[in-house]
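Hi everyone,

Forwarding the result from last night's run.
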Amino acid sequence: MKLAVHKESSGILVSVSGHMYVEDASQLREKALEALGNDGRNVVVDMSGLDYIDSSGMGVLISIHKRCVQRGGGVTIRGLHGTVQELFELTRLTKVFTIA
């Protein structure tokens, strides 16, 4: 998995590509929460290059979302496609996250 995290004026932009497995999910959690710091509220996750995500990756996204919601923000997912999109639809996470 390739992961890039950038701070922007509106929040954090996280770009992921490749395949996200359990060991990659912990890296995502670490980098995203570090970038959010104590006052970050909004995260955009660009999944246009992601071909696979396992349940641990989904769990990390949910925990990041919970943190953002507690602070009055949220997580937006963009670039869903293929089996990753199907998984989000099947698990109804399209109702939890803002999908762009």
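Residues 77 and 99 are 5 Å apart (CA to CA).

Cheers,
N.
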